[in-house]
Structure formats: C-alpha cells, structure tokens
Amino acid sequence: MSRHNYAGRKYEVVAYDPEWPKLFELEASRLRLTFGEDALMIEHIGSTSVPGLDSKPTVDILITVKDIATVESHVLDMESIGYKHLGEYVKPGTHLFVKERPDNADRLFNVHVFPSDHPHVQDMLKLRDYFRTHPEEVTKYMNLKRELFEKYPDDYGQYRRFKDEYMEELKKRII
C-alpha cells in the first residue's frame, strides 16, 4: 500500500475562500453521475468545509459506498473526469482519488472513498460539524496551521505531523 510520501511536496495555507463550498457542489454533481447509486453519501469534509477556516486550497470530498470493491469499476470514469487513482492511501480498505489544478501540480480535489461502515467516516463528519459550531476552536486550529506553515514552509511532513497530533487530541475530547 502506498502511504504518505510527503518528500518535496509543496503546500500553502491560504485564507478561507467562500468559493470552496461552490466548488464542492459542482464537483459533487460530477461525482454523483460518475458513481451513480454506488455513492451512498457525498460530503464536503476537511478544512475547506468549515466557513472562516484558513486551509490548503484543496477541497476534500468524502464518498461512502456499501462495498469498497465497487470502486474499481469507477476508476476509468474518474480518470476520464481528470482524477488520478492513488489506491489505498489514507486508511486501509479505502481509496483516494486526486484532481490537480490544470495550471500546476497542486491538488484541487481529494476524493476519499470509504465503505459506509468504516469508523473513520463518523470521525470525519463529527470533526467537521464540531468546527462548524465552535468558532473558538476554528481560531485555535487556524492559528496552529499558520504557525506550522511559517515554521515548516518546505516540510509538509512536519506540518502534517504536528497538525495530526492536534487533531488526535481534539478527537479524544469530542468523539
């Protein structure tokens, strides 16, 4: 399984963009057509789904399916709408597709496909919903992300390491 090769990966943290929910809605429409009835749920997740939260300008999308094996039948369709299939990447038994910006190699969308009964699905939704209703936590998280980017502008692995530690602590508090 290929996992998290962050070596040399460029990234940036930018101010919240009110276009992100609109980009999600447009892409979700394409994904509904691509996955059809296999997509049980399509949700906007991650930092771009939280109003006011600075983020990497990559829209994260969660698709749940009843049977993860059905994903293989959609790989060519996903490639036809501009996605690369990275396979099992984020969590065992899941799939990741990425779509890059046409003008550079920065990611525009990450599509995470999980079986509907995967425990991480509820974690992602609970975290998103918590941030949406707790502006003080948004400020705290945003400040951390900005500090990490300033400290590690060329080391995405370190940025992720410390950001992930914060998220694990937050999950212990709220989930």
How would the blueprint of this fold be written?
Layout (H helix, E strand, L loop, with lengths): L19 H16 L5 E5 L13 E7 L9 H6 L2 E5 L7 E6 L6 E9 L3 H15 L1 H17 L4 H19 L1
Parallel strand pairs: 2-5
Antiparallel strand pairs: 1-2, 3-4, 4-5
Helix pairs in contact: 4-5
- Tell me which oligomeric state these chains represent: single chain
The separation of the N and C termini measures 28 Å
CATH fold call: Beta Polymerase, domain 2
Which sequence of strands runs across the widest sheet?
1-2-5-4-3
Indicate the low-confidence ranges by residue numbers.
none
Kindly state the number of beta strands.
5
Determine the structural class based on helices, strands and strand pairing: alpha+beta
How does this structure look, described?
This protein is α+β, with helices and mostly antiparallel strands and 175 residues long. It has a single domain (20-174), classed as Beta Polymerase, domain 2 (2-Layer Sandwich), CATH 3.30.460. Helix content is 42%, strand content 18%. The protein has five helices and five strands; from the N terminus they run H-E-E-H-E-E-E-H-H-H. A five-stranded mixed β-sheet has the order 1-2-5-4-3, sandwiched between helices. A hairpin with a 7-residue loop joins strand 3 and strand 4. The longest helix is centred in the last third of the chain and has 19 residues, at 156-174. It is globular. The chain starts with 19 loop residues before the first helix and ends with a helix. The relative contact order is 0.16. This is GrpB family protein. It comes from Candidatus Yanofskybacteria bacterium GW2011_GWE2_40_11. It holds the Pfam family GrpB. InterPro entries: GrpB/CoaE, NT_sf.
